[in-house]
Amino acid sequence: MTLKFYDQSKVLLYVRQFELKEPVFLEIDPSMACNQACVWCRYAHNQDGMLNYDFMLKKLAKYPKVKGVRITGGGEPLINSDTIPFIKECYHRGITVGIETNGSLLNDESIEVIARCCRYCRISLDAGSVFTYERLHKSNCFERVVENIKKLRQWKIRELGVSYLVVSKNIDDIKLLPKLDLPVDYLHFKPLIKGTNDDTRKQAVNI
Q1: CA 105 – CA 107 distance, rounded (Å)
Q2: Quick one: 43 exposed, middle or buried, by C-beta within 10 A (0-12, 13-18, 19+)?
Q3: Pairwise CA distance, residues 87 & 117, whole Å
Q4: Which of 54, 67, 92, 124 is the most buried (most CB within 10 A)?
């Protein structure tokens, strides 16, 4: 029997590993640095906060039963020049890998590697217009990101999605998304979590 990619029954395939406390999935944050300054971000970005290639390989060696790796982070993973080589290494080892990125640093090389080696790529867009994107991401990369999304589809990536964090300042942009004609498999809408202390709760309410 072939299970679908998101079938929750897959957990039963790894009961033995769970009993032995052997991880089958890793989340890797290659970078704490970021090239954007999203208004809701609560991470303290460290421009020197990078995982090097050898460190990430050691994690694969430490957990040899790993079947999947999710590349995300408190920063933008593609700032780290070792992220793309690490994706290729995961692919060559037969490890399912996916990446979540703001999409602004994608280039022809990384697009080709991600499309060929990743099971999925999800782009944080959070807007339907240049104005709203610049207002929330503090970046003028909106049109570049949209173009990179289209390039990923041209390379026939297996699964391509867009993440949309809904706040008061971008909710009206949702109706603009169809005009962008994004060639994605899904749009992932999610609310802004208010946070766990007074400062983050106030920040969330004001966005």
Answers
A1: 6
A2: middle
A3: 7
A4: 124
